[in-house]
């Protein structure tokens, strides 16, 4: 069953249809017929004056019929078009609670009316969904702002006594004899203090995001600095970090410090995912209107059930991870009007792609 027939049956209309093109051409045909009739009658009336009255009556009747048909045609087509235009003006003014009255007709004009009403219903539903999502996002933003304030205060409250503990441990470590077995414990305590301090730093970065200072500069240089630091972390491991630069890449608007932080986080994660020999490949290029930095590794990969959650704050599959690195990286890239994509195969490795737009809004680019 066709869509038009289904719509007709939905509205309880008859299956007999008359195309509006036929309605439009009918008056013209009648005018031509009337003209032909008048011509014949005029020819006859010249020889028979008694039929002159018949000519007048026939002509007047033809004109009257055409006039009636034109009025009917205007009622059937022009009025719906005028109504549709009025409804569209209301929609342009922001009123989506409109419907046309001619949707019950069983012709193309009726199809137009039904399609218009259906479209308006979809627009109303879409607006309601957008408003619901907006309320949800506003509620989430308020919730995150509250959590941010709480996290900031909590981080300061922890950092101050933590600094005191670190100082005491340092003094104790200096006073212990060189042969004391407690020195190993002191070393472990220092490592844990450092881990807590890094977690607090990441927490503060997440709770109090700094607006990126975007400037147009060479993305190759930013990536190369991150690769150099990552290579220092694998000097004692059989892992190669390879870089493929794009010399012809145009300058990209970005905060070099923040993007450096993002890439270093991705590189260190890639290194940690490799057990034994392996390779991390960094490729700089472009895709459509974006500059791209692809970081791929030959590590253990990410399981499909973990992949959707890796950018969530405090979500981590590493025993010593904070779960804030990828979340912070994701936020930084979004602040640059870009995005991060990820794909992974367990046992083969993962690929992270950072996309930064070549053309950012002027308001985001510093002079």
Overall shape: elongated
Count of helical regions:
8
The CATH class of the largest domain, by name, is Alpha Beta
Looking at the overall shape, the CATH architecture of the largest domain is: 2-Layer Sandwich
**How many separate domains?**
3
CATH topology of the largest domain: Heat Shock Protein 90
Strand order of the largest sheet: 2-4-5-7-6
Could you name the ranges where pLDDT drops below 50 across 5 or more consecutive residues?
1-5, 10-14
Percent of residues in beta strands: 5-15%
Q: pLDDT average, as an integer?
A: 78
Integer-rounded radius of gyration:
38 Å
The helicity comes to 55-70%
- What is the CATH homologous superfamily assignment of the largest domain? Histidine kinase-like ATPase, C-terminal domain
Search tags:
367 residues, 7 strands, 3 domains, alpha+beta, two-stranded antiparallel ribbon, Heat Shock Protein 90, five-stranded mixed β-sheet, disordered N terminus
Give an overview of the whole structure.
The strands form two sheets. Strands 2-4-5-7-6 form a five-stranded mixed β-sheet, covered by helices on one side. The protein has a two-stranded antiparallel ribbon with strand order 1-3. Helix 7 packs antiparallel against helix 8 (325-335). It has 367 residues and is of the alpha+beta class. The protein has three domains: 18-105; 141-207; 215-364, Heat Shock Protein 90, CATH 3.30.565. Mean pLDDT is 78; it is low at 1-5 and 10-14. Helix content is 58%, strand content 13%. The longest helix has 68 residues, at 108-175.
């Amino acid at each position: 069953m066709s869509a038009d027939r289904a719509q007709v049956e939905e509205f309880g209309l008859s299956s007999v249809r008359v195309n509006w093109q036929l309605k439009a051409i009918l008056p013209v045909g009648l005018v031509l017929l009337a003209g032909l009739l008048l011509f014949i009658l005029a020819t006859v009336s010249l020889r028979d004056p008694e039929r002159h009255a018949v000519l007048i009556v026939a002509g007047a009747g033809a004109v009257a019929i055409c006039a009636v048909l034109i009025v009917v045609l205007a009622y059937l087509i022009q009025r719906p078009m005028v109504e549709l235009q009025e409804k569209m003006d209301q929609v342009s003014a922001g009123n989506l609670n409109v419907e046309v009255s001619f949707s019950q007709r069983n012709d193309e004009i009726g199809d137009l009316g039904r399609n218009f009403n259906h479209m308006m219903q979809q627009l109303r539903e879409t607006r309601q969904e957008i408003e619901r999502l907006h309320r949800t996002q506003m509620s989430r933003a308020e919730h995150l702002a509250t959590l941010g304030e709480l996290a900031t205060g909590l981080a300061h409250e922890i950092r101050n006594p933590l600094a005191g503990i670190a100082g005491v441990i340092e003094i104790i470590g200096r006073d212990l004899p060189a042969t004391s077995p407690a020195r190993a414990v002191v070393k472990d305590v220092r490592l844990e203090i450092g881990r807590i301090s890094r977690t607090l730093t990441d927490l503060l970065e997440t709770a109090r995001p700094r607006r990126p200072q975007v400037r147009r500069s060479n993305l190759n240089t930013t990536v190369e600095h991150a690769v150099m630091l990552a290579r220092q972390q694998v000097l004692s491991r059989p892992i190669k970090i390879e870089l493929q630069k794009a010399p012809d890449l145009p300058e990209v608007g970005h905060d070099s410090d923040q993007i450096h932080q993002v890439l270093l986080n991705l590189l260190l994660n890639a290194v940690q995912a490799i057990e034994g020999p392996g390779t991390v490949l960094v490729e700089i290029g472009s895709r459509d209107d974006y500059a791209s930095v692809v970081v791929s590794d030959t590590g253990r990969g990410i399981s499909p059930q973990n992949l959707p959650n890796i950018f969530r704050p405090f979500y981590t599959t590493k025993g010593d991870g904070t779960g804030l690195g990828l979340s912070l990286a994701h936020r930084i890239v979004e602040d640059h009007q870009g995005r991060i994509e990820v794909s992974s195969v367990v046992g083969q490795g993962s690929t992270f792609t950072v996309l930064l737009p070549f053309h950012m809004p002027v308001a985001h680019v510093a002079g």
